[in-house]
Amino acid sequence: MSSADSFQPAPPPPDRRSISERAMPVRSYEGAANADYLEGLNAEQSDAVLTIDGPLLVLAGAGTGKTRVLTCRLAHILNTGRAYPSQILSVTFTNKAAREMRERVGGLIGQQVEGLPWLGTFHSIAAKILRIHAELVGLKSSFTILDTDDQIRLLKQVIKAADIDEKRWTGRYLAALIDSWKNKGLTPEKLSSKESYKFAEGKGAALYKTYQDRLKVLNACDFGDLLLHNLTLFMENPDVLKKYHQKFKYLLVDEYQDTNVCQYLWLRLLAQGSQNICVVGDDDQSIYGWRGAEVDNILRFEKDFPGAKVVKLERNYRSTEHILGAASGLIASNQDRLGKTLWTEDTGGHKVTVTGVWDAPAEARIVSDEIESWHYKGRKYNDVAILVRASRQMRSFEERFIQLGLPYRVIGGPRFFERLEIRDAHAYLRVLKSDTDDLAFERIVNTPKRGIGATTIQKLQQAARAMHISLEAATRELTKTDEIRGKARTALRAFILDIDRWRAEAKDIRHTEIAERILDESGYTQMWRDNKDAKSAGRLENLKELIQAMGEFDTLDAYLEHVSLVLDVEKGPQEDEVSLMTLHSAKGLEFPLVFLPGWEEGVFPSQKSMDENGLAGLEEERRLAYVGITRAREKAKIYFAANRQVYGSWQSSVPSRFIDELPIQHVDVETGTGQPASNRIAQDVARDFTSSFETARSQRASSPGWQRYEANKGKKYGRGPKEIEGHAIRRPAKKAVSEFKVGDRVFHQKFGYGRVTSADGNKLGVAFEKAGDKNVLDGFVDRA
DNA sequence: GCGCAGCCCATTTTT
DNA sequence: TGGGCTGCGC
């Protein structure tokens, strides 16, 4: 597809069906009784729903009704009697997606979904399968699932035991490596020496092996293992695989572009049975390459599954023409894509705006003014989202919102069960349940502080290893003798007695009550009550929520089983609040008004991403931009700052290349003048550009750069972006000539005085007297 | 064993 | 700039 014509939303594709096909009422589809759910689907959507046999790839662009298709398809398979609910495998990535799908299918066909036992996340389904056949991969079916934190702590021990410099080679890094290996479906045996050399001069594979052995001893799995053990299980036990071939008549995969190699192999093995695999995804929204997702999986689908049918959903029901035009134009700069063009009947609407601001506080000020004016017009805060590239960008917004009392919520961040206090509480519960859970025991043996230090714990570990017993058992042994003395011994003995008492009590009382009792009697809640830190109150709140969450399960075991894989605590009642989140966590969501701040080179696209992954990294960043814009239903507003504080020091910044890639006909450039004087935004822009140093104001106002800026701002681009030079908003064309030359003495608002050391178009290298060497746009410096 | 000062580093996040 | 970790001193 040529990129030029994709800037404009395409007209509706011709309906290629025959007259009789068109006349055919969908509800008369073979075997489908009472197929109300098929009504209102467009031609492509119903094609995707009705094609139930053989491999099918549904390329579902943003806002094209993907979930609807998925759920209708499920309903349709059930309704036509093609399969029982238990014969359909439907996988998603997140619990949220799984839950939504379950609810929506339920809405379509009622009761039957009760029996959709194989609808869930990759991990929960893999865990379910693994529990059934655990022995075949050397585990017991009661295995525990470790989270990242446990994983790292275990790896630290492994690294230490191997006598490797822990500072040079961290547990975190090895955890990331092992994760990436598991994502690729690599067991320690399959690891190339090149991969192994990524850690401690070739010790990677050996440590990986040791770690896996340790996990087996602990009867535990990490997240990656769930899928990887499944692969081993299926490949080493063809009879087991065959059983699942017979079982699953239909496979349904959501967000296929996010699958990693391991998940792909898993799906391919399972699909060998019926060949009825339907994957839904959008290559343009693949933004998880860094955690192992292979866009290639979706690009290659037709080759992997010969005879696969491809259905493209291109009609967008979410956004206006301009939003889609801007997003399509931007994504057209990517090379590796299957190529789709979204279109809509929703013509008109607002163009995407691009606004240049002075710095982050100004950005926050202008955005908050916009939000207030939106709210003043009677619109909801809930309809507004601010999407940033990195969470640190949230700060200036939060500060501003707090100052104004503007209600907001941060989406994402540490999840409920990843919080310190929740993990600690879980560790207590794990110890209650199992006397061999060393990781849990170690975590809480001195939390709250009982006077048991590293030395004591080391002694316990040594003893446990020597006697091949658990830490808890070793503790029992060592406190009987004089190995451990004094305060530590007393404390350990008391602790063991507590555990014994809790275990005895747990037999008779409800699990929520024993949990409360443990937190109380262990001194854990007291520890936070005594803590003066601002977060303590919140932690105590979270512990209350934990008890509440537990109450929703009948037993402690049921609760713990769900904790690691599916538990997420729903936020309380919906307040009317602005949402603040990263672009990544915005995927799948939509908002009438979307703010996209921080579109500057290095910030977005992220420098790190480009450094580490080159063009592929840049393209993923661009997809992220595409995801960002397509979240908007009515308005998308892009911002960039001329200066940004990075790691404490000020840097001048260059507008993101993505801004120049937006098709100009869908963009409005918003700046100070050219707007009515009563416009608050206009005033703000003017203020932002003049605030900091009043003294330098007259100087700057008379500089050529400023005058040119004044002349151009508010002007809308009639033609291609390259035709206007030196506008503050545009990245300068390469050949533009600056009126500054090497050696000129200049003044900059933030950096002070300096001398030009290089001039590349409008980009100047300046050696500032105080601030050091910086690259700045010439529009932001004045002749001194 | 604990608390504090200095040091180092610094995307994106789900299970 | 600021948060998290470490090592040192008590």
* Total number of helices: 32
Supply the CATH architecture of the largest domain: 3-Layer(aba) Sandwich
Low-confidence stretches: 1-13, 20-29, 672-737
How many domain modules?
Answer: 5
Mean pLDDT: 82
CATH topology of the largest domain: Rossmann fold
What portion of residues belong to β-strands?
5-15%
Plain-language structure description:
This protein has 32 helices and 22 strands. It has 784 residues and is of the alpha/beta class. The protein has a seven-stranded parallel beta sheet with strand order 11-12-10-13-14-9-17, with helices on both faces. The two termini are 50 Å apart. The relative contact order is 0.09. The structure holds a DNA duplex (15 and 10 nucleotides).
Descriptive key words:
single chain, 784 residues, alpha/beta, Rossmann fold, Arc Repressor Mutant, subunit A, seven-stranded parallel sheet, 32 helices, 22 strands, 14% strand, globular, disordered N terminus, DNA-binding, ATP hydrolysis activity, EC 5.6.2.4, isomerase, hydrolase, DNA binding
Brief sketch in words of this structure:
The protein is α/β, with parallel strands linked by helices and 784 residues long. It has 32 helices and 22 strands.
